[in-house]
Specification:
Number of helices: 2
Strand content: under 5%
Oligomer: single chain
Shape: rod-shaped
Number of domains: 1
Length: 59
């Protein structure tokens, strides 16, 4: 098995990738949190399924 030498550059690249991936995950979590908030906020304004059925029966 070949020995892999870890120099300072390899560690820098690894740290940079960790930071980059952490930022991606954080952005995705923020987007999901925002979408959940948006749905909760809008759900209060949506008519219930029974109201929607009643409206469609009237037409």
């Amino acid at each position: 098995m070949a020995m892999v030498q870890h120099d300072g550059r390899t560690e820098d690249i690894r740290r940079t990738l960790e930071v980059y991936l952490d930022k991606i995950v954080e952005k995705r979590e923020n987007k999901l949190r925002f979408l959940r908030w948006l749905v909760r906020r809008d759900r209060a304004h949506w008519p219930s399924p029974t109201e929607m059925l009643a409206e469609s029966d009237e037409e």
